[in-house]
Amino acid sequence: MNTLNISYSSLTNIGGRSINEDYLDISVRPQQIAFILCDGLGGHGNGDVASKLVVCKMKEALEQSKSMEESIMQAQNALMQRQREVHMEDSMKTTVTCLTIFGQEAKFGHVGDSRIYYFEKAKFKMRSQDHSIPQMLVNRGDIKEKDIRHHEDRNRLLRVMGTMWDSPKYQIVDKISLTRHSSFLLCSDGFWEMIDEKSMCKTLKKTSSPEQWLKDMELIVRKNGSGTNMDNYSAIAVFIR
């Protein structure tokens, strides 16, 4: 296979909140492209500080050729240190998602309930598994997948960045073989709670660019969130063609 063409686009919006606690960035290097998105935890305070710190520390580590696993741990340790410095041990928490593309393979890792979706030929293939109470209930067979979005405990997370870990809490999916029809979506819960996989695929089939795909999905997100105190929402769309 010849060299793959990678294109991408991103968006972040404050929604109906006073502070945007989401943060994202992209690292472009000759051998690897990395996409990082975090959602600072609302209600804890300093979520915006935590999300920016983790994104920046992960980007820095990845650009020093650290592995995704090492980068997540370095960001976790840096966040814990910042908490101690400013006496905010009970706040400054965040989710994290990261997608890296190296050659003709992709790898992603995450902590929390920000998601990474993977599509082939505009068909949904897989997504990261939320570290949340509703996801645990789905895995046990107690509720259905579609019930996650409106579950009363959907914001109760089992793993986040910025809490003490007795062992690494990240989850990694690697060795995803890329084709000229691969697409990825990284997004915070403020985004995915307002649009289902069927709508993601429907809009993906009709678009030729990641920019347009995000615009089409954002229209659905805003329509479904109308009349509510919308959460911050952020997303990164990645096309391999």
Provide a descriptive summary of the structure in words.
Helix content is 29%, strand content 29%. It is α+β, with helices and mostly antiparallel strands and 241 residues long. It has a single domain (6-127, 158-240), classed as Phosphatase 2c, domain 1, CATH 3.60.40. Strand 2 and strand 3 (32-39) form a beta hairpin. The longest helix is centred in the first third of the chain and has 18 residues, at 68-85.
Short description:
This protein has 241 residues and is α+β, with helices and mostly antiparallel strands.
Question: What features would you highlight for this structure?
Answer:
Phosphatase 2c, domain 1, five-stranded antiparallel β-sheet, 6 helices, 29% helix, globular
